[in-house]
Amino acid sequence: MCLFCQLPDVAPLGVPRLRGSGERQCSVNRGSRHEEAHFKNGNIMEPRHLGCYKGFKLSLAAAICAFLLTSTARAAENESLPIRLNTVGYLPNAEKQATIAAPCANFTVVRVTDGSTAFTGKATGPALDPDTQEQFYTADFSSVTRPGDYQLDVPGVGRSAPFHIATDVYREPFHTVMLGFYLWRCGTAVSATHHGETFAHAACHTNDAWLDFVGGGHTNKDGTKGWHDAGDYNKYTVNAGVTVGTLFRAWEDFGPQLRKVRLDLPESGGKLPDFLAELKWELDWLLTMQAPDGSVYHKLTTHSFGGFIMPELETTNRYFTPWGSEATADFVGMTAQAARIFRPYDPAFADRCLQAAQLSYQFLKAHPEYHQADQTGFSTGVYEINQPNHRQNGVPQNRLWAAAELWETTGSPDVLLDLETRVKAVNGQVDSDFDWDETKDLGLITYLFSKRPGRDPALVKLVHGNLLAVADDIVQTASRDGYERPLGSRYYWGCNGGVARQTLLLMAADRLSPGKRGYRAVCLDALNHLFGRNGYGRSFVTGIGFRPPMHPHDRRAGGGNVLNPWPGYLVGGPHPKAGDWHDEQGDYRTNEIAINWNAALVYALAACLETTP
Fold this sequence. Notes:
By secondary structure, the protein is an alpha+beta fold. It has helices at residues 3-6, 60-78, 171-183, 237-259, 274-286, 325-342, 347-366, 398-410, 413-425, 440-449, 457-479, 495-512, 517-530, 555-559, 588-591, 595-606; strands at residues 83-84, 89-90, 97-100, 106-111, 117-122, 124-129, 134-140, 148-154, 158-159, 163-165, 190-194, 197-201, 235-236, 299-301, 319-320.
């Protein structure tokens, strides 16, 4: 029996689902919601069950019916679909493949408009996917290049989700993921409409924040603006580091494409390009995190994670927490990069960022030791790992990134000496996968592609070779994977962000060796995986693609009155195994959202935006 054909949200022939839409589910209750035991925290918290609906009575028959309907909908929702492909779509000349987890021989690509045949091919296989233990077949339909809407029809298996082919296929997803950052804004009211549904909240956290824990007594200091970090509403300097650094990398690599995309922000039409206007909202907050001596507060937070309420209803006091060397180094990297990027548009703001970067850099020079932030009394995101085998001598190399950005902005010989000393200390090693806990790859990329004179040629050659070797390994890893997933069989907390973030390394390699098709192709494989060529046949991004997550770990979704989840957010993804993803609000381990994962997705999408005028 073909279960795929029985799923209620599979579009019948000639009736395409709108791209980017998700199923709408009606149910009496989404179940109990649990407070997260956060990876960025490590402290297990007791579950907090929300109360049942009051004043709502059902007859026994109606209750049984409601239970059966809800159970059936949830079972269908969690069903893994056998035809797995990018449900957003493909660039016309890109490779196009589907993974089919069912016996098959032939397949047909049909046009959604009239059901006519566009291409017929033979599937290859079977092969065993070690992550899912499934026998799979591969359908290659790369020769279909004409723009339009299509589906894959596999005799005996079923018909795939619709997908689109166009040169601008990633423009709308890029807009939606950037909309996610706007909707994350703190300290202001936000409102946006996505596919006919409005998502909004009133001004929140306008009293940020108190200085009790940083030596200022019970005094309020401005700490407004910025983005809410993840499924919670706190703001963390360290996670902002890799987030802003990744977004700035997207601007420096793909600025001409990004300038063309209007994001429909309140600032649209002003002196800043929309993309930079959104980043400035975060930077305005980050500048408030600097202490007068140049040290940088680790986070701005409540004592513990808040409830599933709208952000404007969270009125608990929020505090600056003491400084840490990771936060201070990341601050230098962000503000130094901002100084050169904003200079053509807002010289005064660029000057302010540069002065802030130089002050914090001098503070780091005077405090060369690794200093962990004192987070006593706070059980929110820790964003610090100090494991002996985790990094070089157990210490993160975020200062390498700080020095790289400050040198690139100023050209200071002293800063270059510091930078190259640090590059030599790590032997120019590029990590194949990185995140908030280790940002040296951002610094190595800046160093490698700098046009400034004075670099050590031997050191440049070393980093150049290391980066290509890592990129080649990523390409080989993807080629051996049943879904051509760049991370291969590595599954961990937030691994979807890791899949997207590897595109920074791949695109850097593509700039070094532009004739080698594999790098750019694997960038597209990353998007293919995140938008549906995975063990679930579903998109991992809310509001985008086929059957996207409907129950992310997001306090706004739990506290608001919207039917669908807030759009444009990449969920963390399965771990510790490929089959361990659950589209449930309580599953913060696999279904939370976070700014660092979204920033990586922005980069991956920016790399694939159309380049024509």
